[in-house]
Fold these 3 entries.
Entry 1:
Amino acid sequence: MSNNNNDTNDEVARATAAAAKDPATETIFDKLLSGAWPSDVVYEDDWAFCFRDVNPQAPVHILCIPKVRDGLTQLVHAREDQKDLLGHLLYVAKEVARKECPEGYRIVINDGKDGAQSVYHLHLHILGGRQLQWPPG
Ligand code: TR5
């Protein structure tokens, strides 16, 4: 687990580089979804896929993504007809968090460059398993 200043700077650098790329290109999450790359899957159903983050920022760090990206590179691009999907993802994240983090948790969406988003496939971060601080950096 890591959360020092160097990691924070690295994450911002990755986010800045990712934001400069064409958001239509496939992301690493497509490889995890297809099984081409291994992932530690926590939950999946027809719409949602939840797996442990490879670089955890807390004892519990799980990502929850839509199985089909369909333009959802980032939250800001969500369409009205995707409201049910967004609600489903939030509900699934809550259910996963309730089981994994009985003392509480945080659900985060990083959006765009200033949000330090580095992978352009919508994802909810579920963080817990320790006392989280506020405000975030
Ligand atoms: O910075 P944002 O909000 O876009 O979050 C992207 C998250 O994807 C980060 O927390 C990364 O640690 C995580 N990530 C990146 C890779 C990866 C992953 N989680 C699981 N497995 C991964 N693989 C195999 N490869 C990655 N590059």
Entry 2:
Amino acid sequence: MSVGRRRGAQVIASVMACLVLAGCASGPPRSPSGGGPTGDRALAERLADQSVDYLADTLRRAGFRVETPTVAVSSESGDEDEGTVGSRTTRNVIAQTDSGRTDEVVLSGAHLDSVAEGPGINDDGSGVAANLEIALRLGADAPVTNAVRFVWFGAEEEGLVGSQEYVQGLSDGQRGDIALMLNSDMIASPNAGYFVYDGDGSDPGSTEEAAAGSGTIERLLVDRLASLGVPAQPTPFNGDSDYSPFVDAGIPTGGVFTGDAPSMTPEQASLWGGRPGVPFDVCYHQACDTTSNIDRVAYERMLNALAYGVGAFAADLNGLPPRAERS
Ligand code: DTR
Ligand code: ZN
Ligand code: ZN
């Protein structure tokens, strides 16, 4: 195993251990204050806070300036008997290189929350780890042409809350400064498919029309996977992940995905060497989405493609619409 591989494994292991074991934040666990959430909800909020703090500390130690803006999440309260509507908050984590043009930003995103049913290691600990690994390898002062912004969104599972708030909170000018968005949501499914988001609109399942330039992102990621010996298939833009607010905002968008609950077809199994008739992720949104629910080969391939995408677009827009052509 190379040093790079070993370090990659350490990063994914530490993020995942952090997410699963809640052992990543310093200091004693905080107990809920009077009138605050209790039981499972309090624990979930503490875990979420610790994940945010772990990411922010790790990125700050690597030299990044980090923001963790608070986002309001409205939801049914735990008090189901009364059927009241409660609200809570989550935090996005945002870190950007000090280097590169800040009006041609490459944004790489993943979601930091999981469903309540399980620890969410494939969904989306895998994307969280990939985003962190790429940030740490790139570094805060990387010699890039275009700045790279890494974002970990909160409350994706509750309706893309963190990403929607993030995009809505940008001014027109700030939105125009984002040259593209790359999304990593589920990139280590145990019966992995190799999907690249449908930037060119060729997939009949796409219900959202991706901005001009998204086809360029798709091609670059497909070509990179092909260079690793992996034939990719398109996956539609259909509002299912944090890419959606970016697509809606007309920002070129792309990313990779290894599949969730649907089963792999026999054709896909012979293409990728998986198990036909078995879900891509048999533990999708379940308690068994643990550190055992990871295909490390798939993770490394998808991480490779994403890292290549970030690096390529940070070096050169590769034909994506330049700032002057974006509103
Ligand atoms: N909504 C995601 C899972 C998901 C479903 N379809 C796609 C397509 C592309 C990325 C992710 C997904 C979740 O449960 O977080
Ligand atoms: Zn999910
Ligand atoms: Zn997800």
Entry 3:
Amino acid sequence: MKIMKKFIRYYRPYRKVFLFDMICAFGISIIDLAFPQILNYLNATLYLEDPQTIRRAILVLAAGLLVMYLVRAACKYYVSAQGHIMGARMERDMRKELFDQYERLSFSYYDKNNTGEMMSRLVSDLFDICEFAHHGPENVFISLLKIIGSFVLLCWIHVPLTLLLVVVTVAMLLFSLRQNKRMQATFMENRRKIAGVNASLQDTLGGIRVVKSFANEKIEREKFAESNERYLTSKIDNYHCMGWFQSGNNFFQGLLYVTILVGGAYFIAQGTLEPVALATYALYINIFVTPIEVLVEFTEMLQKGYSGFKRFNEVMETTVDIQDAPDAQELRDVKGVIDYKDVCFSYNAEESVLDHINIHIDAGRSIALVGPSGGGKTTICSLLPRFYDVDSGSITIDGKDIRSLTLESLRQNIGIVQQDVYLFAGSIGENIAYGKPGATMEEIIDAAKKANIHEFILSLPQGYDTYVGERGARLSGGQKQRISIARVFLKDPKILILDEATSALDNESERHIQKSLEELAKNRTSITIAHRLSTIRGADEIIVIGEKGIEERGTHEELLQLDNVYARYYRLQFEGLEESA
Ligand code: ADP
Ligand code: MG
């Protein structure tokens, strides 16, 4: 019931349209119900004496009918056009809300959910919901009106005949419901099987290089043929069911007419039924039976719409665990003093990742985090922009707890360069401008120069307008990284996080980018994570993160003197370099 209330809320902005839609639906039903009555009128007219009056009566009838059909057409237009438009508007509203919610949801949600599924919610679930939202009330309303109205009129014409009709109709209804359920099951199976075909296709095409290099085309062909065949089998089942459903329904309709014909003849012979009344009766049967079929098919739409809305509602009701506190303040005039005080954090209850971590960084200073992968370095960095919140302890910037600041102002003051770079569909210029929406061309070029990518961009035929393609597929790793560095130059934050920014690059590109990164780190508080220790020698403090948390800390020289974990790492890499040189 609660979910129903939630659903009705989406009608609220359109209640006038909805009301008018219902009125038009009502109009259509009434006109359809009135139509068979003309037989009575016609019958009465034809027995009139005077041909003149007959002619006039028929003209009046024709004019009346014409008006009726004009009104019906107008109603029909409103229901088809405005009703659907209302559905589409509701779909737009829901899609917007869902998108906003997706943007609000925290990283912890994205860790658990798959983006493909989220996209399908945005597209197909919402379509199902709104198809139902528009057709649902109208279908039920029109159908019930017609069923009840025609039933009353049928009873009014002849009660015993109508009892016969009900018996056959109930049999037909039982058959329809059963057959429809079967048919829907085969439809679902169809959808699963075609998904299998698509998955198989995607897998083979996506991995075509691997397929060919192993010369495994034959195996892939057989695998594909199998899923293709399974799809065919499910379609065959589906069409068998559909055939049964349709032919069965047709038969029952025929049976209905035979019953009425035989029964009607009997009652006419008995003298309880007029022949013209039987003709009117036959017309009403159609009005009575068709909406029953509509309702049977409607059960499917209802099911889809309901489960779609349930899924939609699930997302909408997911609590956003990281958001602005009610009295959140703007982070302004940042100096860049960062403090991690006794920070504990875990992604899930089973395993603690950070255990009482203390880090202090003075404004404009740099620290480096080193250690084995999985130690928690990235996690430490993710806590600063509040991608996740600490379990206990606190993190402050210039003495202010980050939880007391607005997320927007906090994140605007932190720049992040990571190993993976995500480029959006669009031009190189647009991708750099992502660092500062509304940036001027001069600013973009200036940032590109600082990131050492300006010359390269100019060497492209379309310069800054060059389209980067899906995820930047047309650029090398180093080029993409430079674009992401240019973004951060443009953003110009006081605090900088470099998380293995150069780890994916070869030595040559790394050396080049290193210079830009050093330039970027100037006058900013920075946290650097690096595998290659040569890049962090100059850090004001190096913190070694191990299995058991912070294992040692100090400057490069101090740690070498300590001659423990860091010194061991350093020698290992240094000797490695000597050998390869
Ligand atoms: P590092 O950057 O030092 O390699 P991370 O901070 O990425 O280490 O990871 C620390 C630990 O937290 C690892 O055991 C990792 O498996 C776990 N972890 C990292 N990210 C997530 C996540 N989003 N959800 C659950 N566990 C995670
Ligand atoms: Mg990491």
